[in-house]
Amino acid sequence: MNKWRKLKTGDLKAYLSGLAEKWELWVPYFNDGKWEFGPYDAGRDIDFPDSIINVSLKQLFFPKRRSIATFDENSSWSLKQVMPLEKPRIIMGLHPCDVAGIKYMDKVFLDSEHKDVLYEAERNRTILIGMACGKMEDNCHCTDRGLSPDSSNGMDVVYTRTTGGYLLQSMTKKGEPLLQSDRLKDTDEKPVKKDWRRGKYKIASPEEFMTMYDDRIWHDLSDICLTCGICTYACPTCVCFLVADEKFKGKGERVTVWDSCQLQSYSRMAGGHDTRKTPASRVRNRTLDKFAYSHLRYGQISCTGCGRCVLVCPLKRSFPQLGATVTERLQKKKEKVAAGKEED
Amino acid sequence: MQIEKDPKILAILCKWCSYAGADLAGTSRFKYPANIRIVQVPCSGRVDPVMVFRAFVEGYDGVMVSGCHPGDCHYGTGNYHARRRLAVARRLLEFTGVHPDRMHFTWISAAEGKKFAEECAEFTEKLRNLSGTEKTLAREEIAT
Amino acid sequence: MATIELVPKPATINEIIEESRDVKSFVLKMNEDRAMHVLPGQFIEVSVQGYGEATFAVTRTSKDKKEFTISVKRIGHLTKMLHRCAEGDVVGVRGPYGNSFPVEDWKAKDIVIIGGGIGLAPLRPVIDHILQHRKNFGELEIIFGARSPADILYKEDLRGWEQDKSIVLHTTIDVPFEGWNGRVGVVPVVVKDLAVKPDSKIALVCGPPIMIKFTIAALKELGWPDNRIFTTLEMKMQCGIGQCGRCNIGEKFICKDGPVFSLDQIPAHAI
Amino acid sequence: MNEIRNKIIELFSKGEIDVMLGYREDATTGALKAAVFKKDDTLDDLVFDERCVQNLVNYLPTLTARYKKIGIMLKGCDGRSLVTQLVEHRINKNQIVAFSIACDGVKVGGKTAEKCDDCAVNISPIADHAFGKQEPKKVPLYARVREIEKMAPAERWKFFSEYFAKCERCYACRQICPSCYCEICIADQQEPKWIEPSAKLSANTMWHLIRAYHLAGRCADCGECERVCPQEIPMRLLNNALEKAVQEMFKVRPGTVPDELPPLVVLSKDDPDSILEGRNE
Lengths: 344, 144, 271, 281
Fold this sequence. Notes:
heterotetramer; A: 344 residues; alpha+beta; 10 helices; 28% helix; C: 271 residues; alpha/beta; Elongation Factor Tu (Ef-tu), domain 3; Rossmann fold; 7-stranded mixed beta sheet; 6-stranded antiparallel beta barrel; 15 strands
């Protein structure tokens, strides 16, 4: 394991400007009440969020509108694919749940027979500097999803706040060149290990969730959900997309665009057949996808416990709470069966 | 005739009156600018403001909609509906930033060829000294 | 330079066959002159530039594997654009994707093929394969249902299958039409009337979702076991490579784990 | 609050309502959520205070399909929203029991919602059972709209285009709005494709213009679209601008007069042609 290196707060700006010369550096900014990510600009003051922010990093790897080919509208066929980007970049200030989201996206786009070349290029050109969380917001429940606020898997460099500055440690070969700067001093100071809150939203195993498909609970759970797409757009692992052609003044573009399984048009087919007509079937589809299908497909459930879906839900319908409610009902059904009573 | 500099105008004309008026302007040799693209609709009541929005988003400099004078609509009440819809659509477009001179809603009967030619020329003039002051609802160029 | 899988390659429409009033078959050939190894049941994604892309099962491939055919029913936005294309036009093709009918393990088995309307398109390559290796297979029974005589597809094939002694062919239309003296009745009812006995046969079912649902119910009533009923599901697909998440039945993706499923592989509630 | 609870218990016992649509404080998360109270549920966690922001009218169509008689708690703006739904025959009145509760402003994100600053209708125009009295606020209407109208066209476009560019097209504004109930929304139509699916400036502009236009003369200004938008796009501004236009041109304020048809549905022979020239101040 590499040693920890210390960066004094005063040297932060100089260190970042040093990085920004060789890499395209993305850092978090706080403006009008919200955290957003933006390219590094020495003029603005730099601070790092201690915990979850509204925006998931999905946008930097799988943009909400991504061009994959361009064509000339007047020709009958001239689709030419787009060149992937190569400029090396650094993203600083990610939290463990965001990085876990990116690792899940790797499974979807890279562990497949047809690798997504554009996504792969974005991943290869990016060095992730992850930040251990300082505190857990009330919706945070990464500890219930096999993660922890100070875990560093998937990060190239991990850093955490400490008295008078930051402690940095490189985790991968990709991260090493970032710590060569002379602003950093070796130190044997170690980040203090905290024990984090657990058990807020416990969920059953994927196999148990699969047995809940025909349960009546989905109607009650979905009655206040209006099936808009906010939770899927905010979620770091929801990457459903649609492909569309768009034309303007003779120039055309084939794009992949974010889509959401919660919207009615998602599974409506030509001729009117729709496999998920009712809101209950859509809420069930997303819940089971997060807690069961993703595990059966990729061996890892796709909920990283960030709680972002609760932050953005306009009806304050808490998705992790929904998962916990289904688990409670599962427990009750098991007790009933165990006690030999007939299921209601 | 250099079209590119002249403001591009979309004219949606009702078939029974205004389109016939435009025809009359043509047959009686009234001059009107050539940068007008005419779309014929059965009645001004058929004009869905979505068409006007899309025209501006596609980059037209001006949109003109014309139908029969209230009272002699071939289908009876088409232009009454159109009057309300286009009035509301105009207020919305003005509010979001389209300059009022870019929209011209009028009534032209089949006999008013001259009026059609004059209004088109006047509309083009208004648009010409407008262009450059601000962009219409910009539709960003697609990065090639 | 790595190729983006979602970007299709150009293919030329060599021939257009009018199958019925709203179904046309398009014989395609890749412009870059390479063979398309398509197994029976696999599908491709066909795009019309500027209008989008849709999923079509490959319904026939030529001997030299260079030309492949799709049958398109005019029902939506993209299919309407395809129907406007003429011979010689260029469309985009990518694929083939998905699994195929396991014809290899059906050696010496009797096969029953039940197709409803355009649903016969994905099943026709299986019939072609059986006829090309006729002695490897047992009896072949084909039940084909169409809404009306004008909707009957592949008329020359049907004539060929009729004369072939080794094939038992039943063609039916949903409701009586004058000038039609053949069988009348929807496919599930016909399957019940024919009382197709399961013994060691394999059944293939494809058609509109409602037809698949009731035909499978009819087969089950006749005692067919789930592992010997196969169907090919063409739900709404977008990427065809298991990434866009759209065509999921439970945890399975139709485009990657299907489109061909035996009934015991699909959760019961899905059909 | 107890006065309301007793009335609900009374109606439950008399069988005049099958379910009560109200707000409940979630025991675990503490968040305040819409809730359907059944006959034998306890009403202790039934709440009505300044946190009850959500407009419950949007649930009525699905509930009227499941239950015969539904009670609903209504603020002033919710009441206006109910009026628009009744006049558009989306639900019928004999299935609804309206509880009109005088509202003195709700809080969004800790501060009083903007819509409550210029709210002149603080009790529902329709009420079977009324609680609390109307305090008509003499308030200058559409103050923010007039501010924006003072700006030059290019400035206004810059103001709105910055917001439109941020739109993600999650359609929360469509899903939360009781008046947005088309079976196949124009945004999902393929032929003709008026709105392209991708979240870019031109497609977003088309979406926001059409959404606002389709609500002209029908929007009850419950402000939910602006509240739910994750990008905080000022949709109420567009709705209010059109409400002001409809008020000036056709003397109609949507949802304030029961059974009054929306202006764009009716036609009148004596509308002045001058309305076609727009505001031109």
